[in-house]
Amino acid sequence: MRELTPETITDAVLDQMATTPDPRLKTIMASAVKHLHAFAREVNLTPAEWIKGIEFMTAAGKMCSPERQEFILLSDTLGLSALVNGLHDATALEEATHTSLLGPFYREATPTLAAGSSIAKNPKPGSECVLYGRVTDATGKPVANATVSIWQTGADGLYDIQASATSVDYRGVFATDADGLYVLRTVKPLGYSIPMDGPVGAMVRAQARHGMRPAHIHFLVGAAGYRELVTALYLRDDPHLADDVVNELHATARPGKGELLVQVFADAAGAFAAEDYEAATRL
Ligand code: BEZ
Ligand code: FE
Fold first, then answer.
1. Which end of the chain has fewer surrounding CB within 10 Å, N or C?
2. pLDDT exceeding 70 applies to what percent of the chain?
3. Nearest ligand, CA of residue 198?
């Protein structure tokens, strides 16, 4: 029988797991064990600290429900979701728009609206802006009849479902026209705090982090024969672009086509008409 010590236990576990038939699972689990053991050694983790860690993960699990995924929030606030997305973008076969986090506020039950409609039910007079763009394939060819699902916070920094599970506001699905164009009205979103009432919020507070995300508008774009794209536009002037609590990679230096930083120009308010759309989409 082999005598296990803190020095030999890692290899012993790896030997035991060497029978894993699925090669990718084998690689992932072997690496996870090596890094977890290295982490415990590096910080000299005590049993009491590890119990605290287990209690934290238990609390995260208990917080999960069909409406709330605390583990995704944990992955987001540790920067792991953004890292995994960034690694995926970098290995993508084609160079295309960057991905962004889906986040917890997407929902499938989103109304389909006609081009030019407003996704904001009761915008304050003068607060509307026009949002438009073109969906293309990776070679730049317009994609007609793509679905563009959009969701964002209102001017108060809240998503509709934070007010009530059934309210629908600041979200809509649009179809692109024959030239791949979509256009809608909305209001300028506000930056907001991630949900702070669970164990992840407690962790963020214990780290004296602010918990804020910069203002953004989410997009989920789909079309027959194409992979779905989850992305977002971020407001260029937001003070939290550089210290986003979920560490989203906004940098334009990321490989991929298109900028995810936008400027909202005042004063499309109320004056939106067919000729504006035509002028805007000729840009
Ligand atoms: C969001 O953008 O909606 C979001 C993303 C990650 C964590 C929390 C919120
Ligand atoms: Fe969001």
1. N
2. 88
3. 1
Which three-class secondary structure state does DSSP give residue 134? strand
Q: In which residue are the tokens 């790896």 written?
A: 14
Mean pLDDT of 52-77: 94
What region, left, alpha or beta, does residue 281 occupy, with left being phi > 0 and alpha being psi -120 to 50 degrees? alpha
Q: What is this structure's pTM? A: 0.84
Which ligand is closest to the CA of 217, given by its number? 2
Report which ligand 1 atom has the smallest distance to the Cα of 194: 8
**Buried/exposed 230-259: b ≥16 CB within 10 Å, e otherwise:** bbbbbbeebebbeebbbbbbbeeeeebeee
Looking at the CA of residue 73, tell me the nearest atom of ligand 1: 7
Residue ID of nearest Cα to ligand 1 atom 2:
103
* 178/204 Cα distance (integer angstroms): 46
CA 274 to chain centre: 32
